[in-house]
Amino acid sequence: MSFLERARALYDEKGAALIRERLGEYEGRIAVGLAGRGSQCYGYDDEISSDHDYALGFCLWISDADDEIFGLELRRIYRALVPAESIQHSAMGNSGMGVFTIGDFFLPYTGTRGAPTDVLQWLYLPSHALAEASNGQVWRDDWGEFSAERKIILDGMPEDVRIKKLAAAVLIMAQAGQYNYSRCLKRGEEGAAMQAMHEFVKAASSVIFLLNRRHMPYYKWSFRAMAELPLLGSMKEALEFLLTGENDGAGQRLKAQLVEDVCAAVVKELQAQRLTCGSWDYLEKHAIDMHGHIRNQSLASLHILEGWQ
Description:
Layout: H1 3-23, E1 31-34, E2 59-62, H2 64-81, E3 98-101, H3 102-110, H4 119-124, H5 127-134, E4 137-140, H6 145-155, H7 159-186, H8 190-211, H9 219-226, H10 236-244, H11 249-272, H12 283-291, H13 297-300
Parallel strand pairs: 2-3
Antiparallel strand pairs: 1-2, 1-4
Helix pairs in contact: 1-2, 3-5, 5-6, 7-8, 7-11, 7-12, 8-10, 8-11, 10-11
């Protein structure tokens, strides 16, 4: 049974009844679930995950106003379910579970007390932070305030921001994979070539998530999450090989071909989504074409790589 399943069982079997008994008139104003940092919030936990920050618990989200009314009692209820001595504190200063005001929960991820509110916030926030703010599960939210902010983070990225991020990542794919990888090899700089390949894979991964309109999680979970994506998720194995395959002569030739295969697949999907007007093999032209179609002037006026993470 996964952590998410065990956390849900703890709430269903004990937490819900205790909240109803002691805060029945307010239970409909409490959102309940699990989200935030940690493999358990993605459903990716295993036996290795239990070596740190793995004490069972869940999240309870309330408004600032309700925190003044019944927040203290709700924290007492949570402590009855999850004793303080069982809580493991992470390097970030808390366990990531317990009672939060809605604003306090989102603040570390978005820099605001909810979803991003303007295009520059969307542009500069790292994808993994947006993923952590919207992962996991919400089991109850009668009032809907928490879920409304969460939905904006999941689905509300402005299209011009998505295009801006895509243009930057596609340009990095061209520079690092189609251009610099082979040039570094020709110079005998294998270390630099592998750095270029790492940048290509990172950028290609970002592109694939953006094409799926999803936020890419923290790097160590990006391949696992990529495999679940309907568009180009099948590129996972090729991208993994580019990082892990043998780097002898035959391996280098195969990697160079795989780079072109990945780029061709990306171009096909960019065309399917009407994000590029061209059919060029070299991705730099597609990046420039996309950037030229950004309508928001504050974004269009920025350097094409501005906002690349």
